[in-house]
Each structure stands twice: as C-alpha cells, then as structure tokens.
Known about the structure:
The chain is mainly beta. It has strands spanning 2-6, 9-17, 23-29, 32-40, 46-52, 55-63, 69-75, 78-86, 92-98, 101-109, 115-121, 124-132, 138-144, 147-156.
Amino acid sequence: YEGQWESDLQHGYGVEQWADGSRYEGCYASNLKHGQGTFTWAAGSSYTGSFEKDEIHGIGSYKWTDGRTYTGQWQHNCCHGVGDMLWPDGRAYHGSYESDKKHGEGCYMWQDGRQYSGQWKEGKQHGFGRYLNGDGKAREGVWQRGQRLKWLGGERDPRESDGFLEKKT
C-alpha cells in the first residue's frame, strides 16, 4: 500500500496492489475502501465509482471481461436501483434492479430492434408490458415469471401511440 495514513490506518487517498495482481486506487477510511475509487480484479474485470465500508455502494460502472458493462446504482456489491446494462452483441437494458436482478420498471432491447418495456420481477418480465417487434408493431400484454400470459388488444403502429415506445430507425 502506498498512500495516506491516519492513526496507523489506511486513510485518505492510496493505491493497494495484491499478490494476485488485483489493484485498488482511491479513497480509504479507517483501512476500508470508502469514497471514490477504481478496483481492478486480476482476471481483468473492473469497477470505478463509489465504495462504502469496503463494498461497492453508490453510483459506479462495472466492466466484465466478456464485454458487458453496468453503469448505475449499487448497494452492498449488487446492482440495485436504476442502471444501464450493455452487452457486446448490442443488447441493452435500462431500468430498475434489485439485488443484481431486473426488478420494477425497465426496457430491454434486443440487437434486432425488438423491445420489451414494462414490469420486471426477480430478473424476468412480470406484470404489464409493451412489446415492440422487429417490424415496428407494438403490443401490450401480461407476463408472469418471464412467460407471456396474454396479449391485450391488437397490434398497433407505435408512431400512433402515446409515445411510450418509439420505433428506432
């Protein structure tokens, strides 16, 4: 460890490197990562953002070695609150998370233009949602544990809708 000390504890700004190659650069309070910093794991994943009492907590961005990124709110080392998950193949999710799972309101977009906007529970579509197919037609429906139970009404052109979903060009 190289950095500031107080009462023989890591306190203030510092850089710590472990034998496995993991590295943290940022703020410490009483020997704990606390405040803004960047942690890079030996395998290559990294997190930049807020830490609280040695945990990822607050606002930050995590990058996995497979190319996924999550930027948003964190609580106790988990995606928790509102955030954006991006996959390297073009998929994306913007919405609420609870304990690392999609939960609450959110919009999932496939790389081919399809979208689901609506309610999520424990990582799966659950409740009311709107689906935009690859041809630009929108439908409303009800989902349970990731399975569509029924469509509500017919297909419609989203350009004539309330603007909740918009066709991407």
